[in-house]
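Recall the central idea of this unit: under ordinary conditions, the amino acid sequence of a chain determines the structure it adopts. In this exercise we apply that idea directly, starting from the sequence alone.
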Amino acid sequence: MDRPRPRLFGVVLAGGRSRRYGGPKARARLAGLTLLERALGILRAAGLETGVIANRVDDLPAGPLPAPVSVRPDLTPGAGPLGGLHAGLTWARERGDAGVFLLGCDLPLVPPAVVARLATDFDAARPKVPASPGPLGIEPLCACYPVSLVAAAEEWLSAGRFGMGEFVRAHDPVVVARDQLASVAGAEHAFLNVNAPADLERAVDLLSLQAKPD
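Accordingly, the structure predicted from this sequence is:
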């Protein structure tokens, strides 16, 4: 008997121009793993099957990816994270999944338990996103999205509207407050975004602190 598919398909965004970082962030290494490997490991530890959205081979680490994983490009290249979400939702719909858990590869400190909590009681009609201390107030690149949003994403992309935060807020999101995740070890640094080399150094320091015994 075949194992039932998970309701959510874990999708890692591994594209982007990485201008501030100075090179493909998916190839950067943290504690012996590339950021892409870490993102895939986070989703898999939360019990999700995984895929990668990336437009160029040069965006990915050299050598074989952790098996089994497939890679697809954006259907609308150059549209940023919303283009990646659209491609991921289309992929999930083909698979027969209810939605995707989208994770940016530049969020290497997300605990798998945070992913699992966000995926619990997934809403089949609304995005589910965590509150974040960042400028948007939410973290749309560590969030759940139903496949019912495929058509809306297509409409936004066709209209040249690429704002990910704006898209999420326009679709009545379920926002998970920070205190609802506070009991998860490491949640206070879950949304550290590696945009520049200094951010990667900060992530190294935080991992070292987390590894030290109390």
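The chain has one domain: 8-211.
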